[in-house]
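re: ur question from yesterday

yeah so i grabbed the chain u mentioned. its 348 aa long if i counted rite. heres the sequnce exactly as i have it in my notes:
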Amino acid sequence: MPDSRKGRPAPSGSPQDVTTVLLSVRESATKINPFVTMLVNALRADPTVSVEFFSWPRALTARYDVFHIHWPEAVTRGPSRIRRATSLMLSLLLLLRLRIRRTRIVRTAHNLAPHESGWPGERLILSAFDRATDAWITMNAHTPLPEGSRGQVIPHGHYRDWYRVPALTKTDAPELLYFGLVRSYKGVDSLAAAFSRADALSHFRLRILGKPDPSGVSTTLQQLIAADPRIEPDFRYVPDAELAAAIARARLVVLPYKNMHNSGAVLLALSLDTPVLIPANPITRDLQTEFGSDVVKLFDGELTSGALAAAVAELPDDGFIGSIDMSSREWSLIARSHAKLYREVRAW
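ran it thru and got these structure tokens back, copy pasting raw so excuse formatting
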């Protein structure tokens, strides 16, 4: 029987063979978050899984077997004090319902902590969700979990189903690229300083693409940009097609985050066949082992002009490295691992 929800076919098999999963993200997230879209599309191709997006009526009244939490703070927060207080009260009701119905909770640990801290009431509820979680998904083998937790590593998928690799030639004036939100913890100031001091890169340009955080562009970065015409800032949200073209055109993407954990930006650059230079830590060393030192280049400590110039010197003269093997990040494999975990926790 066809499924009336947007005309997609209903999962095959008897109802008891299908695991119904409610995600903690709303359907509107598919317009701005490729990860959500690609994960849901892959899961809906599996006949043993039925996936629904979050809404409060659905969360509090519908039947589902697993509640899969992504970015739990998105559930508890709101644009106003009244909406935030309402969301927190509804979150308490949801926790109670999940416990009474013995609905299993799966949690994907995207970040070590929310990028923006919440107020005390929110932190208490988020801690309650953590304690109630039955199984955790981490995207690497180094994410710490609460003591005694059950965890499984399911890596982040590639972006080739979302951003097509443009057919471009590398520019005569070679480019280095930083892209993403321009925030203090992402080390853009240190990148601009290292680039300005690297005499070996005098024929390169450095492009900085992305919106600054609400506090604006730092004084240091403003001064570096004013002093070096080779640094080209573009402080705005960049549409997908334009971003893909910029990444594919760059000789090297540099992401000098002060603390790098899971980074979709790294996977995006590799998906578009562009090497990356990123800080060395256990997670990024695993990435280098997975993809190779020719496309994942590491630096220790704060980025220096020497480390930047050394990474560039290792690149091919024509800027082409060929197609990067992303088979380990296929979404069909990732969906299969999710579906297996859903079945397991449902049976507990």
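noticed a couple things. The longest strand covers residues 104-109. also The first helix runs from residue 34 to 44.
anyway ttyl
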